[in-house]
Structure formats: C-alpha cells, structure tokens
C-alpha cells in the first residue's frame, strides 16, 4: 500500500516538474491587453502565470461565443489593482487540467473587454481563432490583432493574490498557488502515512 501511494506521489511530482510554464503580462505599457494575447501548444499540466502590471484587471474565463461574460464554473482571478508607482507586481497562476479544447478569458473590468477587446486565449484553433474571439468581444470584424506564443520553460513561480478561484473539473483550468500546492503535497504525504 505504501509503495503504491509513494509511486502515485512521485508520479504527481514528476508531472508537475515537467510542466511548461507560460508567462502572460496583464496590462503592459498601461494598456488594456494581455501579452501575449494567446498561446498555443499548451497541454494538461502546464501552468499559466499572469503578472498584473497596471490599472485594475482580471483574468476571467468565458466562452468563445460570449467573450465578455463569465463562464459559469470557470476560473476567475478577481481584480488586481496596481498602483502607477508600483515596483512589485501581483501574479495569479492556473494549472491546465484539460487542454483538449480551447480556453477563453477576458478582463471583467468594464469596458475593457467590449471597448478594447481585452481577451486572452489558450490553444485557439483554425476554426475558432483568437481574432474571431476578439472581434466578437468588440462587436467588430475579425482583424489580425494580438500576439501568439508557444512559451518556454521557466522557473518563475506565481503567487495567489487571494482572489476568487471557483475552479471546477470541467472548466479546463485549475487555479493553483504555491500555498495550495504545498498544502496539497503535505496532505498527500499524511494520507500516505509519512511523518512530517
């Protein structure tokens, strides 16, 4: 029993260690944008870290058809206000549970989504493009705006700003912070019968 539990813990740790971390800047240069505005190649277990650098923004999960409406049961960072003179910036991190379909996000601070098209996509497809998603958000035609990246493996870790994170297994994204990960690993160790 202990060996099976230890093997499961080791497999979980290996999976977390091999995950790719993508970094997204929220509000770069005092704009209502995400940089990059979309990322591709994300797989289950990968981590997306959002760094809030200006104004007051959120990362709120939506759907392709309703870009500026919070998805029921989706993840939501809550708002992260950033002072103009700030020298340190809050981060919010999610771990992707299911990357089999694109994931869609927006800034819930009105009118950032509808007026500026402040939206973000994970794994948009040829049929459901980032440009079409953004155009739907602003009520306009699909243009060629935004940047896409495939990201690189980094060692930066995000922190949870204490914002709401109503993650569900069907949202495709799981909110995860360093504190929550530590708590989860300690719990697994205790269940496995290890003394701490």
Task: Characterize the structure shown.
This protein is 23% helix and 21% strand. By secondary structure, the chain is of the alpha/beta class. The protein has one domain: Immunoglobulin-like.
Main attributes?
alpha/beta, Immunoglobulin-like, 5-stranded mixed beta sheet, 4 helices, Phytocyanin domain-containing protein
Oligomer: single chain
- β-strand percent reads 15-25%
Percent of residues in helices comes to: 10-25%
Low-confidence stretches: 3-7, 143-170, 176-192
Count of beta strands: 12
Trace the largest sheet across and list its strands. Answer: 2-1-4-8-12
Overall geometric form? globular
Q: Count of DSSP helices?
A: 4
What is the domain total for the residues?
Answer: 1
Broad structural category? alpha/beta
- CATH architectural type: Sandwich
Q: State the order of secondary-structure elements, H for helix, E for strand.
A: HEEEEEEEEEHEHEEH
In short:
This protein is of the alpha/beta class.
């Amino acid at each position: 029993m202990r060996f099976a539990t230890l093997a499961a813990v080791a497999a979980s740790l290996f999976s977390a260690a091999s995950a790719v971390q993508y970094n997204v800047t929220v509000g770069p240069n005092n704009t209502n944008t995400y940089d990059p505005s979309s990322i591709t190649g994300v797989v289950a277990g990968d981590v997306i870290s959002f760094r809030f650098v200006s104004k007051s923004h959120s990362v709120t999960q939506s759907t392709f058809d309703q870009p500026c409406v919070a998805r029921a049961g989706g993840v939501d960072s809550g708002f992260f206000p950033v002072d103009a003179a700030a020298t340190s910036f809050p981060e919010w991190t999610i771990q992707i549970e299911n990357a089999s379909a694109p994931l869609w996000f927006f800034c819930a601070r009105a009118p950032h989504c509808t007026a500026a098209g402040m939206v973000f996509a994970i794994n948009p497809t040829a049929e459901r493009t980032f440009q079409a998603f953004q155009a739907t958000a602003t009520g306009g035609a699909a243009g060629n705006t935004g940047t896409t990246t495939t990201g690189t493996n980094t060692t930066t870790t995000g922190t949870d700003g204490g914002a709401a994170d109503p993650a569900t297994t069907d949202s495709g994204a799981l909110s995860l912070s360093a504190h929550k990960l530590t708590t989860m690993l300690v719990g697994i160790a205790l269940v496995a019968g290890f003394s701490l």
